[in-house]
Amino acid sequence: MKIAIVGTGYVGLVTGTCFAELGVDVTCVDTDASKIERLRSGIIPIYEPNLELLVEKNHKAGRLHFTTSLEEALPEVEIVFSAVGTPPDEDGSADLRYVLQVARTIGRNMERYVLVVTKSTVPVGTAAKVRAAIREEQDKRGVQVPFDVASNPEFLKEGNAIEDFMRPDRVVVGTDSERARDLMTKLYKPLLLNNFRVMFMDIPSAEMTKYAANAMLATRISFINDVANLCQAVGADVNMVRKGIGADSRIGNKFLYPGCGYGGSCFPKDIKALIRSAQENGCRMEVLEAVERVNERQKGILFEKLARHFGGIPNLRGKRVALWGLAFKPGTDDMREAPSLVLIPQLLEAGAEVVAYDPVATDEARRRLGGAVAYAADAYGAVLDADALVLLTEWKEFRLPNWEVVGRAMRDRVVVDGRNIFDRNELRALGFTYYGIGVL
Length: 440
Ligand SMILES: NC(=O)c1ccc[n+]([C@@H]2O[C@H](COP(=O)([O-])OP(=O)(O)OC[C@H]3O[C@@H](n4cnc5c(N)ncnc54)[C@H](O)[C@@H]3O)[C@@H](O)[C@H]2O)c1
Ligand SMILES: O=c1ccn([C@@H]2O[C@H](COP(=O)(O)OP(=O)(O)O[C@H]3O[C@H](CO)[C@@H](O)[C@H](O)[C@H]3O)[C@@H](O)[C@H]2O)c(=O)[nH]1
Hints:
By secondary structure, the protein is of the alpha/beta class. Helices cover 44% and strands 13% of the residues. The chain has 18 helices and 14 strands. Helix 18 (424-429) links the parallel strand 13 and strand 14. The protein starts with a strand and ends in a 5-residue tail after the last strand. The chain binds nicotinamide-adenine-dinucleotide and uridine-5'-diphosphate-glucose.
């Protein structure tokens, strides 16, 4: 089977590489020529565990190709996946410019049947717009080449993308033709041989499923962050409460970790887009409006804790603050909407000095923040002469540090644990002042 994937970002590159790994002949297309050039020489543009090896292996095996030309790839393939970006527009709605660009290129160039599958996260009604754009381009050419559209939203998590793709909880496919359904069944069959978890549904429901899933997950996070802050105020321990409620199988224990707010390329933009889409359709997503507000507030909580500890914002002037972690979560160099991007400007504004360490996101941080922040070569280097240490990203290498060494290196033993990963009793026994999220 031959397919093309348009857009070689997180989703496109992972999807293309994983299908190639299953024996499909995949052409990855991107308009970014330098990205394609680097991919051809084995350099992948993102940090994603194991991805580089898989790209190299399948590229060498001749199953994974890279090109800037969708026009050239089109005659060869039965299915085109569109996995281009859908960034937020000024009003929060999803910007469909790239999705429709791809549709128009297909309409302008197709000579035989193709199934056009949208993998990007798009609002309900996008498949209809894609279909209309292809038809319009065909009309301009005076041709009527048959095609189908389908929706196949992606649920992978950055940092665990290959595993999520290869072993999905479910695959959601929205179709409205038998031919499209057969093609998608054929493609996904090898991935889910023994447990065929493809859920076929109508296209609008598939489009909505993606937003509703992210909205539900973000709601759990804001909910537990709210509970955590109340726990702190009334003297309860959110870690105990989280376990207590998570043991109820109706609630479950996943995605209930309090922290310094959710970030990343998906939750913030998708929540905004769903709120906006509701407004455009005469509805209101009141729960999600609150989810967003809680998350904005939560991203400021680490700064509040530091300011309170030092007796007010003016006292942060001249303080040296060490940060462990810059990425929005472990396993990635992605800093989009990361809590670190809220805390760092607050600290700099207050006149504090910031020294940061992240195992993989330092280059990305330099690109975004320039010379405003100093970068240490390792976790211990970051805490040298620091007045406080703030944990922002729960990378595994931060979980069991040698606190004796950390304590000796620091000027003042203050730890703000933005992800509740440290043992507060151990730290306090060693003379640290410890602040967590929703724990005393
Ligand atoms: N990142 C994730 O974890 C994730 C997970 C699930 C779904 N999604 C959704 O998938 C979509 C893609 O996300 P991403 O993070 O992979 O985006 P990304 O920004 O990393 O990559 C998008 C790529 O598309 C390319 N592109 C744009 N217009 C093009 C065109 N006309 N032709 C060819 N290439 C073009 C860009 O150059 C870029 O390389 C978004 O809708 C996102 O919401 C993302
Ligand atoms: O209990 C939790 C779980 C996550 N987070 C935070 O939530 C954000 C998002 O984390 P995660 O969902 O693991 O990462 P993403 O890669 O953004 O993945 C989400 O967004 C993708 C893009 O739509 C979807 O495909 C995934 O299913 C969905 O989990 C991060 O800042 C995490 O720190 C918490 O604060 N508490």
